[in-house]
Amino acid sequence: MAIREIRVEGDPCLNKVCRVVDKFDERLHQLLDDMKDTLVKAQGVGLAAPQVGILKRVFVIDTPDKGMVEFINPEIVKTEGSYTDVEGCLSLPGKAGMVERPMKTTVKAFDRNGVEFEYTGEELYSKCICHENDHLDGVLYASKVVEWMDPEEE
Ligand code: ZN
To answer: In terms of CATH, what superfamily is 12-153?
Structure first.
């Protein structure tokens, strides 16, 4: 178990386009295990590899109903509808803002063994997929905020 340092706004890793994973090896598994430990410790919902300084197309999402899911080389294949909800990010501590996201998002990705799967998430899960996927293209939710929340009310 290893906790990796979460990079915060201003770190150049957060603005880079990440590379496709081509080796589903021990190093990838170590990265995934560390990201999961880091996410749990930070009590977050999602974490993308560039947030720990690794420019690879990998993210993990942890929700009470689905548990921890690993997404490698994700690709959003379909979106439906839209809804606006509050978002935050471990790389932008103390901030929160309203962002419009699809109501439903279907993503194709690979698991740690290189097996492809498809998953459709709704509302919270749809929002998480889109938020984490944006990280892999160097995009932070801050650039999509329609209204910032007052931190006093958090
Ligand atoms: Zn984030």
So the answer is: Peptide deformylase (3.90.45.10)
Give CA–CA dist 79/22, Å, rounded: 26
Residue spans of alpha helices (H) in 19-123: 26-42
Tokens describing residue 126: 């749809």
* Distance (Å, whole) CA 123 – CA 101: 8
Q: Is the confidence at residue 80, as pLDDT, over 80?
A: yes
Catalytic residue among 9, 75, 132, 152: 132
Q: How far is CA 138 from the centre of its chain?
A: 11
75 phi and psi, to 5 degrees? -145, 120
Q: List the alpha helices (DSSP H) in the chain.
A: 26-42, 124-135
Against a cut of 0.90, is the pTM above it? yes
How many Å lie between the centroid of ligand 1 and the Cα of residue 114? Answer: 24
